Amino acid sequence: MEKKGFWQSGHKPTLFSAFLYFDVSFMLWVLIGPLAVIIAADYPMDAVQKANLVALPILGGSILRLVLGFMTDYIGPKRTAQIGMLTTLIPLVLGWQFVQSLDQLYVVALLLGVAGASFAAALPLASQWYSKEHQGLAMGIAGAGNSGTVISTLFANRLAQHYGSWEIVFGLAIIPIVVVFILFTIFAKNSPNRPAPKKLSQYAQVLKQGDAWIFCAFYCVTFGGFVGLSNYLTIFFNTQYGLSPIRAADFTTFCVIAGSFFRPVGGYLSDKLGGAKMLTILYGGAGLMLAAVATLPALPVVLIILFIGMMCLGAGNGSVFQLVPQRFGNELGLMTGIIGAAGGLGGYALPLILGQLYQSTGSYAPGFLILSGITLCALILLTVMQLSWRNKWMEKGGKARLETVADGSQINA
């Protein structure tokens, strides 16, 4: 039977709906990142407090991804996504009308994590419509919704300045989430091939498999690096180079674009070349770029370095999730939530590392050196795992291929 091409298979309205849901959710998830410098004018904060503020939405997203991953398996990704969007309205209303202190703002930041948890519903919704040979591109297109970060970094501070209030930005953000909810409800459909829900005991069995934790570590670095830097770079550019809030956010936007739009590229190239091979290249590139940032070069130079580094991290996200459905296709909803949570924890840790070390040393150099070291450790781990995988899944003609193993799982080594 002749295989269908990507654009002849799957369900395009659902793929587009998953992208929109992920896009608007990411826009809201990182909303506080670019606004942090302006918010600090109302609530003065030291370096650690700023880092905590921009890290809390990522922490909330990490925790809630487990919840939404479980819900995706049991009630389906469409209904889970609808519940997620309605719940996201709560922190937006609170931030718009009810914040009176920094502690209350911390609560709003944590609750915004429900938007980041969209990952656990959006990606399975799209992925379950596509066969394994198209997983990388399908997950890449849906995952490119992290481009919503660009909307926040580009417009949040401009809107705050125009209206003379950062609170109004939370109110205005209600409009796009409502519009996307309506479009999503109309066009998105659950795949008829959606796996049956698993028992909790079966989930525990999945977590006993070493590959689950390996993928968590891989995504902790790629996605954690991307979302952590997306939330923190406005503070970095403002503090290190003295840029205004709007200009610092604009420079962050430039870097975020690289990570967002190269995610589907990473998925596509992983389909063609193999996810592990692509990830090896991307980890090496990201590690070198982060080490170069630690030299704190002139602003034009650091901008180019960060652009390339974010490009590697964003494409790496696509590469990781080209591998995941092939290894855990029957537990994709849960594994997406677990691996996504791990990525979020990486993103939570990154601002804290940079903020704590900056306050302790007065320089960002140690923080970026540590981030580079973590990325290179991931590269070493990947190299070791490739040797292990090759003992299980044969390669033919120098190109990775799928091999069924004893337990019925598959992976593209």
Automatic annotation (TrEMBL):
GO BP annotations, alphabetical order: nitrate assimilation
InterPro entries xref list: MFS, MFS_dom, MFS_trans_sf, NO3_transporter
Predominant subcellular localization, coarse grouping: membrane
Pfam families tied to this protein: MFS_1
Domain Major facilitator superfamily (MFS) profile: 13-390
Keywords, ordered alphabetically: Membrane, Nitrate assimilation, Transmembrane, Transmembrane helix, Transport
GO molecular-function terms, A-Z: nitrate transmembrane transporter activity
Protein's cellular compartments: Cell membrane
Transmembrane segments: 20-41, 53-71, 83-99, 105-125, 137-156, 168-191, 212-234, 246-266, 278-296, 302-320, 332-358, 364-384
Membrane topology: Multi-pass membrane protein
One of the record's GO cellular component terms: plasma membrane
Family per record: Belongs to the major facilitator superfamily. Nitrate/nitrite porter (TC 2.A.1.8) family.
Protein's recorded name: NarK/NasA family nitrate transporter
Annotated organism of origin: Paenibacillus arenilitoris
Classification lineage: Bacteria, Bacillati, Bacillota, Bacilli, Bacillales
